[in-house]
From TrEMBL:
It is an enzyme of class 3 (hydrolase). This is Lipopolysaccharide export system ATP-binding protein LptB. Pfam families: ABC_tran (PF00005), BCA_ABC_TP_C (PF12399). SMART domains: AAA. Keywords: ATP-binding, Hydrolase, Nucleotide-binding, Transport. One of its GO terms (molecular function) is ATP binding. It comes from the Bacteria. Residues 2-250 form the ABC transporter domain. One of its GO terms (cellular component) is plasma membrane. Its EC number is 3.6.3.-.
Length: 259
């Protein structure tokens, strides 16, 4: 679905992404791991249109999407979440979901005067869909809670729910487990798996928790110093000497040898 070819992103003399090439296949849950500073989030930002590439190419289902802005990619079904959740804190959980779809009639001034019936019908449809999403994510009890009052894990579930309010084709999840307790993390993992299997979502996941990666992801891509270092199953990656050296550390490598 997504093909990245020789992608570069430079910040002055710093090469955050330095010739990365990879493929995210349709229907997969692809893991993206690597040490801090490996270029993972910069790669996400370029693919998702938040940063222009220095050079290289990104295609989605064969279409060149290199450098397209986020709102255009949104309408093509490419969405991303962030390490720190971006909720509208003063709005309820349900309202956060309902505002996601674009082109709503209520956004136009004239429609608020002359299209009230259409607006009411749209809102009823959105309300029903938002409640279905909340039931799917098992957080329907939070529908009327202010989003700013949610825990870190609940906010990550809300971000995942927002991707369900539109026809998402591929979702990039940036450290979905950061600051999330184990129970909620497994709830998030189960939701991702269900979205993948039942609704055909394709995911690419940045995460440092290898248990989470092993549960969800195949394949796993490893980045280091802006480049793709290795790719394989989670078990293959964990046994890869280059990965152990660059990502897991020489200390672990030596410990495993001693064991």
């Amino acid at each position: 679905m997504i093909v990245v070819e020789d992608l570069h992103k430079h910040f002055g003399g710093f090469h955050a992404v330095d010739g990365a090439s990879l493929e995210i296949k349709s229907g997969s849950i692809t893991g993206l791991i690597g040490p801090n500073g490996a270029g993972k989030t910069s790669l996400f930002n370029v693919i998702a249109g938040r940063l222009p590439p220095t050079s290289g190419k990104v295609t989605m289902a064969g279409e060149d999407i290199t450098g397209l802005p986020p709102h255009v990619l949104f309408h093509k079904g490419l969405l991303r979440t962030f390490q720190i959740a971006h909720e509208f804190s003063s709005m309820t959980v349900r309202e956060n979901l309902m505002m996601v779809p674009g082109g709503q009639s209520g956004e136009g001034l004239l429609a608020t005067w002359f299209g009230r019936g259409r607006i009411a019908q749209e809102e009823a449809t959105l309300l029903k869909k938002a409640d279905e999403v909340l039931d799917f994510l098992t957080i329907s009890h939070l529908r009327d809670e202010k989003a700013g009052n949610l825990s870190g894990g609940q906010k990550k579930l809300l971000e995942l729910g927002r991707t369900m309010m539109v026809d998402a084709k591929i979702v990039f999840l940036d450290e979905v487990g950061a600051g999330v307790n184990r129970t909620l993390l497994m709830t998030i993992a189960d939701a991702i798996i269900r979205l993948n299997r039942e609704r055909g979502y394709t995911f690419c996941v940045i995460e440092h928790d290898m248990d989470f990666i092993r549960k969800l992801c195949d394949p796993v891509i490893v980045m280091a110093e802006g480049k793709v270092l290795a790719q394989g199953t989670a078990d293959e990656i964990m046994q890869n000497e280059a990965v152990i050296e660059a990502y897991l550390g020489t200390g672990l490598k030596n410990k495993e040898k001693a064991g």
